[in-house]
Amino acid sequence: xxxxxRQVTVIGMLLAxxxxxxxxxxxxxxxxxxxxxxxxxxxLPYTEQLLSASGGxxxxxxxxxxxxxxxxxxxxxxxxxxxxxxxxxxNFLVKVTDALSxxxxxxxxxxxxxxRVVLPETMPSRYGNCTNCHAQPTPGAPVTTISSxxxxxxxxxxxxxxxxxxxxxxxxxxxxSMDGELFVTCTSPITYYSLSDGxxxxxxxxxxxxxxxxSPPASYSWGIYxxxxxxxxxxxxxxxxxxxxxxxxSATGSTPPFTWYIPPGYLPAGLSLxxxxxxxxxxxxxxxxxxxxxxxxxxxxxxxxxxxLSIQIVAQPLIITTxxxxxxxxxxxxxxxxxxxGGMMPYNWTVQSGSLPAGLSLxxxxxxxxxxxxxxxxxxxxxxxxxxxxxxxxxxLTIVIAPLVKVPPDATYSSLQExxxxxxxxxxxQAMATTFIENVVLNRLVAITLKGGYEPTYTSNGGVTVxxxxxxxxxxxxxxxxxxxx
Length: 486
Description:
CATH architecture of the largest domain: Sandwich
GO cellular component, one term: membrane
Strand content: over 45%
Organism: Geoanaerobacter pelophilus
Number of domains: 5
Pfam families: He_PIG
Protein name: Ig domain-containing protein
GO molecular function, one term: calcium ion binding
CATH topology of the largest domain: Immunoglobulin-like
Largest sheet: 5 strands, antiparallel
Strand order of the largest sheet: 12-19-18-15-16
């Protein structure tokens, strides 16, 4: 084939032509790495984690912005590495750029654990329950003071205590007891090992040279919790737009009180988190969809764990709220609006089955049934409404159109009131060339149409409508319109 080509590639006996302007679209560039990165530990090398992406055109180049844990970096190849120097919870933005300068960004979350609980050599008595730390002993007995003890709560199965007796010159010995066991001779400092989770009480007393036993002994109570902290909530129930929502996040291990946190902007609009209780509550106002976020919880030991969760926001069920349609009259204008609730506006209305009376039509965007029916009878239709996300609802309704009833042409009446009194219910009055000067009491359902440029005036009188005025009507032009009297 003749022509000018940019490149000709021969593979075996296959001739492939790369034509000018020929372009194959790549998949959109996307960061695949989950937002919650592996937990790190202070002063320990972080397990290198490679960020991953797909789509676009390789090679990729990575960059991080925001606050990374001190000591960690993100290389251009997408490797998170280093040795963290400070504990805490960090979130930062990573951005990947492909060979054609397309970009994608994602918020990442990383927890750096302190790795251990460092206890000071002495602790003030507000930690735990230090009863009689400075005992008021039996007269003549030495006084024992517990000067250092574990924090409460503690996540260590070891407990170290230091204590002293005053005056030391009168103290023969000291005795210790753990959790109500018998007192045994002990010296300061003393350390207990392999204690179980739960509440513990340490007691110590001094015995004087004359056998005086300190009573009550000095004591200290605290709790040990070594089960690792974890977020127990695996999933959250759906939330409905406009409906109150309340769901508590839960944690296992460690010990309360817990402090909960979700980064701002990640919960659906209308929902918020109580950091003290972990309850997510409110009334959702955002659009339906799947909302992902990272929840984190911190215990009294400043241990923090994270977990990725999500909430599905759904619309309230779409329903047609119109219960019935009013009757109409043949030849009289009709106007009625169908109504719905729930779903996502805008709505779209159609007649799914059945038919409207001839002369009436349904507006798809508003649900208004309008027009002038040209036939009478009972007409049943099934109406269908769909919303912006294609949810649908249906309902069957009936419109009754009353027939046009005429006074026989050869019937004559001396007054409009007499004519009205002789018209059947739901009928219509027609008149020949006649002038009526009278008040007419309209106390039945009759459709009255006045044509020929004449407008009757009427006022309410104790629930009975009175039509007043002079009606001069040309032959055949009177049918009295749009005044339905009940």
